[in-house]
Structure of Ribose-5-phosphate isomerase A:
Amino acid sequence: MPTELSPIDKAKFVAAKKAVEYVEDGMRVGLGTGSTAAWMVRCLGEMVREEGLRIRGVPTSTRTAELARDVGIEVVSLDQAKWLDITIDGADEFDAELNLIKGGGGALLQEKIVATASDQMIVITDASKEVDTLGAFPLPVEVIPFGWQTTQALIEETLAAMDVMGRSASLRMNGERPFVTDEGNHILDLHLKRIGNPRQMAMILNQMPGVVENGLFIDICDTVVIGYGDGKTQVR
Ligand code: 5RP
């Protein structure tokens, strides 16, 4: 274990370390994005370099691709891999049914495509991401830049007609400019507070013109590995 980790980083590290035990020689592995997923990529890189583990990794963002190459993982595209044995990724929130909010790092589109093309998805997280009801974390929605304000208005009008507490959608910024995803899109963060019916919300959002994908992962995650600051882990 790296020395001098803060309790939160230790929790993320031990969750990642536990999750890579699910990775076997020869597997095609989806590599998530974010600070927790970065620990997993580093752990896999160490297994490749020091234990001779042979895997092909499909990254879910340009920054994960760069890290994976740096640590010695063979990187292939999803279309080269075709299907994945396992995907390991972080999350912004998870509930008791293992439904997730993802996209805090802006990579939700590739993350959802990759996780859906996997035999199993394992989420690695610290305990702070567990919630009774999804929605305190703003729900990221990827929208195309063309007419994004019209899409924002349509989303807000639709939310107003639904049984949700929060209704505002804010454009994610990167300094003075709109945040741009790997696919060249923008992100609207929906401040909903509480999502009573995540499945319905996900379907409604994805029917809107201009919406590319939303950050609700419903029935995609199979296992959650929770790490704790004292080094313990729990598998759900
Ligand atoms: C990126 C994601 C991340 O997995 C999520 O934001 C969690 O990130 P972190 O591990 O840094 O807390 O969905 O799009």
